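Sequence in, structure out. Go.
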Amino acid sequence: MIVPTIAGDGVRLRGLRADDVDELVAGYNDPEMRRFMPMLPAPFTRAHAEEYVTDLAPRLFAAGGGFYAVTDPVSDRMLGGIGLDRVQPGRAQAEIGYWTAARARGRGLATAAVRALSEHAFHTGLARLELLTQRENVPSQRVALAAGFQPEGVRRAALPGHDGERDDVLAYARLATDPPGPVERLLPDLPGGELTDGVVTLRPLTGADAGFYAELHSLEDIVATSVPPIPPTPEQVRRRCAWAPSHWLAGDRADLIIVDTATGTPAGEIDLYYQEPRTGQAMIGYSMMPAWRGRGYPTRAAQLLSLWAFAETGIARLIAGALPENLGSQRVLEKAGFKREAYLRSRLPGLDGRRNDDVQFALLAEDLLIEGPRLDG
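Output:
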């Protein structure tokens, strides 16, 4: 059958050819890609690649979908792949998937390819495209948002994983009536990847911080103020750290490590929870390692995060809470410009089935403008 050539921004999509076999073998044996494609044969051989060219791709086209090589429009060299599968003609719906060769990543090729194939699919009669990706596959989520696919939720255990397990997937979708993207994010990336005042630096939490996070959240006083007040399991720690970039992209949470700028040593964490996007309210919380307490670091961190939130997001009001006996945390909030607003009885779960009162503070953008930093004392 004749496979159409589809032009995109800096890419061209065409049918697979016999001279693409080497690129398919290299791509499907790349460790990073195999991490998120557990159903691939291991290893992926030339025989598998040849089968893709002669059998799999034609079958996908015959079913109303397709499998295209993503190529350089000048050299025609294969840089990745993209396809439509699970076509449901009755619903005018299909699922889109893609990959990029290691040497070609970071250039926006996947986004350009997804946009190009999406437009082609809509022009040929589809009304809805779905895109599924694992929580830890942050580059794929960035592509989805950049190409106009909106997040729709989590599908539990929807994908076979490694070692017989099943993985949750994030579901994105784009309708024929949707703009081509990018989708506006509630929490944008930090400018330059971090925030700093020269004394402390805030950088996003990642999977590499699991050891530090586990140590921090095993401290008795930090566990006692956690919700619920029990230490996280190793798997919960792994997920919290590994999934943090995905939650940031989704706009529901921004988790950051507080770093001593002079030494580069992690000293604590500070988190922003975007609880109420419709009302513009978010909450912050923070924890410090004992060795770094008493230096004003959480106050600095709270001010840095607050300034970024008010300047770069739709957040208009920040709240924070502290146990009545936690006078140190209350002083941190007051120095950062937060004002005490309420005393909420039995708001939080405590140890042994008890309930804890919560002292509530709030900060508005104008509070910072009026009072400025208060790092003394």
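Check: The mean pLDDT is 94. The chain has two domains: 6-175, 191-371.
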